[in-house]
């Protein structure tokens, strides 16, 4: 057996031991970027190498392979590579930067547990190599502005998401002189220049609302739980906006055209999850998507100087018309 195939089988075993339901052929095809027939060959090899594997069919008659978690010590022989450890450290730093302190702490716990399962000399060498890799990737000391975090508020929200519990919040809207007390059902957070809690107010019209975290003066858990709406998709809800702000009045078709000199740089960006990109005959690049949030769009477009034209909507075009400079030394 080749080293590559052996490594694939070990990865298969990791997946099979970490999944309660087991691994399907589709899971293998996606994980290893292979076709259905190759996945079938992998399962036969897996059953031969790991005779203790459990094979069953799920409710949709799809075959699944699961490895009982009886003695995971054979997996420890693989150890934790410097790339694995660097990835965990980068995830921790991203979470801290975005104010997700609870997630950062949990990733840190997983990291420490995995290191503790390794021989001390190996663990020390892996940590050293990971630090070098992290620094080389430019994330360990990444500059730039960060959003201030209210750790107490985030801790309350984290507990509310888990149950889930309804929460009482004291919220001061843009037009409010004094904060108003509301009871809401929390569904998630939108992270950006400003952070928003996505929640459904109780006793209202049933619509989801965004609440700016910096305007929540107090949040308290209630003793009342609620059933999450299974049809609600946080990603789809977030995609209604360009950034984190949303306005139904502004939602619509957005079309930007980047000049030929900026097209290659613009092609490297994902401006919106639903974007459609077209390369024009003159070398320019047209980007189209549906979203709201003209002010956040204008903030971003400013970085491109005079190298981008706003074709739609008219309101956004007028907003940036007098602020396109031609003396920027570099593109974003």
Explain what the structure shows:
Helix 5 packs antiparallel against helix 6 (101-116) and helix 5 packs across helix 7. This protein is an alpha+beta fold and 332 residues long. It contains twelve helices and twelve strands. The chain starts with a helix and ends in a 12-residue tail after the last helix. The model has no long low-confidence stretch (mean pLDDT 85). The strands form three sheets. The protein has a five-stranded antiparallel β-sheet with strand order 7-6-5-4-8, covered by helices on one side. A four-stranded antiparallel β-sheet has the order 10-11-9-12. Strands 1-3-2 form a three-stranded antiparallel β-sheet. It folds into four domains: 3-76, Winged helix-like DNA-binding domain superfamily/Winged helix DNA-binding domain (Arc Repressor Mutant, subunit A, Orthogonal Bundle); 82-136, no CATH class; 164-238, SH3 type barrels; 252-320, Alpha-Beta Plaits (2-Layer Sandwich), CATH 3.30.70. The radius of gyration is 25 Å and the shape is globular. 39% of the residues lie in helices and 21% in strands.
């Amino acid at each position: 057996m080749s080293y590559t195939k052996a490594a694939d089988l070990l990865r298969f075993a990791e997946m099979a031991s970490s999944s309660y339901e087991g691994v399907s052929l589709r899971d293998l095809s996606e994980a290893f970027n292979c076709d259905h027939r190759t996945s079938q060959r992998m399962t036969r090899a897996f059953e031969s190498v790991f005779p203790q594997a459990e094979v069953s069919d799920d409710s949709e008659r799809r075959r699944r392979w699961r490895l009982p978690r009886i003695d995971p010590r054979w997996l420890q022989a693989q150890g934790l590579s410097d790339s694995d450890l660097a990835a965990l450290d980068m995830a921790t730093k991203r979470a801290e930067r975005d104010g997700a302190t609870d997630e950062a702490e949990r990733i840190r716990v997983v990291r420490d547990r995995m290191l503790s399962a390794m021989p001390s000399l190996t663990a020390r060498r892996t940590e050293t190599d990971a630090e070098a890799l992290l620094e080389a990737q430019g994330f360990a000391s990444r500059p730039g502005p960060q959003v201030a975090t209210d750790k107490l508020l985030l801790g309350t929200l984290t507990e509310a998401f888990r149950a889930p519990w309804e929460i009482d919040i004291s919220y001061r809207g843009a037009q409010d002189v004094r904060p108003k007390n509301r009871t809401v059902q929390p569904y998630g957070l939108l992270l950006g220049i400003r952070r928003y809690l996505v929640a459904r107010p109780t006793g209202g019209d049933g619509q989801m609302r965004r609440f700016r975290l910096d305007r929540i003066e107090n949040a308290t858990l209630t003793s009342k739980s609620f059933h999450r709406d299974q049809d609600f998709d946080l990603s789809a809800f977030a995609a209604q906006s360009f950034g984190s702000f949303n306005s139904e009045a502004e939602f619509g078709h957005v079309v930007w055209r980047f000049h030929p000199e900026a097209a290659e740089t613009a092609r490297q960006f994902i401006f919106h999850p639903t974007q459609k990109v077209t390369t024009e005959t003159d070398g320019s690049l047209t980007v189209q998507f549906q979203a709201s949030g003209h002010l956040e769009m204008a903030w971003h477009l400013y970085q491109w100087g005079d190298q981008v034209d706003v074709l739609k909507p008219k309101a956004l075009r007028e907003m940036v018309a007098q602020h396109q400079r031609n003396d920027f030394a570099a593109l974003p």
